[in-house]
Amino acid sequence: MSENVVHLHKTTNPPATVEETVPTVLTVVPEPAPARPVPLWVRSGRAVKRVATDERTKNTGRVVVRHGAYIAGGARIVARRTWDGRTGSRYERMIRTAEAAGNLEAAEEWEERLQRFRAARHHRRMDLLHSPVEAAKGAAVGVGMGIGVLVGLGVVLAISNGDVKDVITPLSATIDFIALLIRIVQVVWGPLISIGPFLALLALWTVGRQQQAAPQWALPANVRSSEGEPITPSIVVKALRDLGITPLKNAIKEMGDAGASMLSPITIAGCGVEVDVTLPSGVATDEVQKRRRKLAENLTRHEHEVFITIPAAARTVRLWIADSGALDEPIGPSPLVTDETMTANYKTGRAPWGQDLRGDAAELSVYQRHLLVTGLSNQGKTAALRALALWLALDRSVQFWIADLKGIGDWAMFDGIAQILIEGPSDDHVIQATEMVEDAVEEMNRRIEERRRDPSVVFEPLIVVVDEAQLAFMCPVVGEDKRPYGGSKATSRYFMAVRKIHNQGRAVDVLMWQGTQDPTDQNLPKLVREGAHTRASLVLGTESQARMALGDKAVDGGAAPQLLRQGLDKGTLVVASDGIKIPAGQASITVRTHFIDDEPAAEIAERAKALRDGATTLRVVERGEERDALADVAAVIGDAPRLRTNEVLKRLHALAPSTYGDQWTNDRLKSLLEEHGEEPKKSHGVMVVHRDHVLRALANRDTDGSASTAE
């Protein structure tokens, strides 16, 4: 039997006639079966889970545990204080600590204090044997004297009133007063017994709360996040015990003082604390160094807040533990910015570079020291290098030749201070920078030759700065003499020029300062990096790069720039140098440098320019060309009305060392000016060249149509 389907929607064009009626067939769809009810135990478990994981439940649990721990911790602290006050345990702890630190004088002093404490305690105990008899005698005498005084007052009162009964009036009044006190005690004693335990618990809770004697996770959120757990000897020992070094763990268990003898006194050091740990036999210092992160977490600190160094003492590690969050706080502006009267001295002064981790000023001496600053990109390398140059620029005797191979204006404020300023990242700029360093080699050789003739001669310091030096080492250009500008072979022009300055430059105060990033053997050759007396590194990627930057000795001694935080520890340097104060026995120091922004840097540069005689900055290094000597004399004089002839010669040599070398003397300069109708004249007994005379000579020459060239 066939069935017709009836459409329930309205037909737009119904048929005109219906010949027969078709019955409608409806299909009844049964309702779906009801879902099975969730068992009661499942619903109960879910409800319990929701309640247990709710943040309000967690907070309530923390509050309950915290305040309960305050009471237990307060009882422990009070018991410890009582025990320390009644026994000599405090003195014994201090003796063990002093002996572990090797401080025998302090140990002897604490031993003397312990002997005095024991003698006083023995004296008190001996006095207790006689005190009952003495107390009884004293009580009998006191009662007798009291009764006598009261009877005497009664006699006086009876004589005054004429009534013999008044003799016992003071005595009876005293008895009544004593009875009243007894009744008051009887009334108060019951409630006092009831609330006494609660008052004692309140006192213990107060002590525990003041000392934060509760688990770290149960403390309030602000305390957990900002303050961290205070560093105590027991916490340090526990952190060392839980490092996972089996010999160390077993040795701590066997120590009678639970490991306290390993620790020196914990001292405050800047924004943290410092402690030396003498490791037991069988435990190497590098085993602790390799577990820096685990040790920091055991101390409730981040990894970057714990520094491990190796002092001079054998089997000893020095821990510096920062206060939580302290290293994320700025250290303040540079003294160069805040003190407008500050000056510099190349030979005896120290540059205010920043602060060490102890909060002390970190000052660097640059006297006859080549400098290398390296690190990853955009971590503050240029700012750290420029801060030293800005300070040194305040010494008017210092000359600067600068090549900024980044070329974005980081060194633009040295225009007017530096004799040479190259700015740009192209191969042409690298070629100019290489030729500048080669000119510095020629200047160094000239000074050496002059020193050989006259050992007493003193030279003005020449600082040759190359920022982004990795571009020079990686330059692929080959010169006309078939020698590459870059590379690390004996044919490399830049490499060999830097090596020559490193070898002999410091003897005549020609110094090489380089800033480079992401060091490798290709962009920072071994011989160059090891030629720097001061080596500083910002954050790096690997330990091998840290060894390239600072050397094996510094890294083996605990230097770890690879553990600094990229982007968060900008301007934090690990420095290896004898020009900065480093704690005894350490090979490096961590410095948080002052950041000097472009605007205050320009203001410092203006102060430096005011100390100088208008230095003319040459922005392009040119070689192998004929030069207009008279025009060069006018250029080096600049805006100065007059200059001493020897100063003019120095500036000519800085302008083009290959042209104005040893052959240019006072006589040569005098001949040049006389050729055009002018000549140097004396001023206050010193030969000087007047700017107006040089300009007049130029005007006369242009009129005559002749020009003098320097050969």
From TrEMBL:
Domain FtsK stretches? 354-547
| Coiled-coil segments on the chain, per record | none
Which residues are recorded as binding ATP?
A: 375-382
Ranges annotated as spanning the membrane: 139-159
Which controlled-vocabulary keywords does the entry list? ATP-binding, Membrane, Nucleotide-binding, Transmembrane, Transmembrane helix
**What is the name listed in the Swiss-Prot or TrEMBL entry for this protein?**
FtsK/SpoIIIE domain-containing protein
Q: What is the lineage of its organism?
A: Bacteria, Bacillati, Actinomycetota, Actinomycetes, Kitasatosporales
